[in-house]
Amino acid sequence: MNSTRNFFITLLTILFLAGCEQTDHYLPSGLTQSQQAVLSDSLQKLDSLILQKRAIKFSESLKYARIAVAIAKKLNTHDAFAKSYIMFGNVYYSSKMDSGFYFYNKALLLIDSFQLAKERGKVLYDLGMLYTAANNYKKSISLLDSALVCSGSIRDFATISNSLNSLGNIYLDIGESMKARKMYDSAFVIAKSESLYLQMGTALGNLAKFESDPKKSLELDKRAISCLQKSNGSNEPVASVLINMGNRFSNPDSAIYYFNHALQLVTEENDPLIVIGANNSMAYSYLDKGDVENAEKCIDHALSISINTNNPDWQSTVYDTYSDIMERKGNLSQALKYEKKSIEAMEIANKQSALKQVRLLDAVLDLKNMETIIKDEKNEIEHANAHLRNKNQWIIIIILFLFVLSGIFMFLIQKKRIQLQHQQIESAKKIIDAEENEKARIGKDFHDLTGQKFSSFTGYLENIEFPDDHSKSTILSLVQDLKETVREMSHRMNRLWLERFTLERSIRGLCNDIVKMTHLDLEYQAPDEYPAIPKETKIHIFRIIQELLSNAVKHAPGSKVVLDVSFSTDYLILTYNDDGPGFSEEKDNNGVGLSNLFERIKLLNGRIELNTTPGFGTYYSIKIPLA
Fold first, then answer.
1. CATH match for 503-625 among 3.40.50.970, 3.40.50.620, 3.10.180.10, 3.30.565.10
2. Separation of alpha carbons 7 and 586, rounded Å
3. What whole-number distance in Å separates Cα of residue 57 and Cα of residue 49?
4. Which stretches of 239-389 are assigned E, i.e. beta strand?
């Protein structure tokens, strides 16, 4: 049975290992919850700083992104690493689109691998904006639509509203104003329902562009500014709305007021593009007033910033404005000079835009090629795994078949063994029953024969004259004791008589008789009270003790014998010990008496321990269940 159990355990182990799959996980960071909260908050702040600085201070933004990676390593979570990759994408968003594309896709791969649904919509939004900057509107619309779906599934309303505003900008650029307005309206409704003031202000500012009535447009712009001022961010969105308000005013003084107001909210260092735009628009307002000098000051300032920030797109616009100022001054040669510079700057801007698109396209193609290679390798691995799984399945089937076969074989062997044991037990019972019957017959004959003889002998003694009455009385008393002893012995040979008495009385009487008749040095130890013992068990225990003491009388007559009977909760414990000659277990353990002793213990489901060596006595320890 042990071999069957071990085989079954081995099989289960094989099946378990065959079904296991290895997965890679980041190790726990070992940080406390408060430490994790502080580091997560730091990541959020770094993200905000990068979004503010990426257009004007690339090296500083890159430093923030590297700090974010260091924090992600400390947090050691998939979410933190995904956010750090997104930050790197944001850093390279304007300057190196291919690098930005690489990091966004790296973040997306991590997000998809570990089902980080919270970040997926944001990355799709960032990728959509990247394609928008590269003028790939078709791909951008597809990504922004996907961002809407992902963000909607987790109720990320900020990303939903941002995506709708961005889709509105794209549709407005490609001339689909109805779709654009619908996107802005949806963005405002969602942002308003969730009190997202930045998104509300952005949507209202965009909706103001569709109003032909200046008053309504101005009202929408003011509402947009009010919402933007409630949001926790930079002043750039407010300044952008103020510039749009100024551009819609035909009164140059009103326009100049809003442009100046916008410039008060931003600095050249933090928002150079806003400063360029405000000064360029304000230059035209001064031209409308006929103030060429201030117009030239504004455009000089704008040109200086556009050159310092290496922005050929704005340089082209500013040079074109400069050409208009020179024309207003009547300096046509200078006007022509700046117009040429405007065209040259536009060509550079177009080349840079084209280069960005080419680099982005290369990055996309590289990624697709890599995905194709990975897909092919994955297919090969899956094919190999399928072959291995098929092989493992056959191995498992064969093992199961062998297991079932061996189980059936072992069941049959066990069944045969049980049948044999049952036959042996039945045979032993028959032999023991025959022995008990024979003992009962001998005991009865012995009782009848000795009873008559003792009666005749007693009558004979009573008719004999003795020298004195005391001698006669003593002899008659001894004969009577002998008669009673023989009578008890004959009774103990009959199981019917044994069943009438308690086990303690039967054992004690046996011990007393043997001591009287053989003068054996016997020490008998037993409790005062015996628990309830079944009749069959009581007979077998008595016969076992009888056999032990008979062997002591026969083989160790001059030795010290100790017989001890005790009880535990469920067992009778019998120990026998003598200091007689002992015997060899291998040579002298085949006698009928000992065989019967072992058979009786087996019938009782008991256990026996025999320890004997020639010249060193004999020791038995027998444990028999009472139930």
1. 3.30.565.10
2. 35
3. 11
4. none
Stated as kind and residue range, the H or E segment containing 619 is strand 618-625
Query: Closest Cα to residue 108, out of 128, 94, 91?
Result: 128
pTM of the model: 0.54
Provide the 10 A C-beta neighbour count for residue 226: 14
- CA distances to 81, 118, 132, 371 from 106, rounded to whole Å, are 10, 16, 20, 12
Helix 2-19 with 332-463: angle, nearest 10 deg: 170
Token pair for 453? 């003889």
CB–CB of 479/457 below 8 Å? yes
**612 strand-pairing partners:** 618
Burial class (CB in 10 A: 0-12, 13-18, 19+), 213: exposed
- Is the separation of the CB atoms in 276 and 305 below 8 Å? yes
Question: What is the identity of the amino acid at 428?
Answer: A
Whole-number percent of the chain with pLDDT over 90 = 17
Single out the residue of 535, 225, 570 nearest to residue 543, CA to CA. Answer: 535
Give the pairing of strands 560-567 and 571-578.
antiparallel
pLDDT at 527 over 60: yes
pLDDT > 50? residue 70: yes
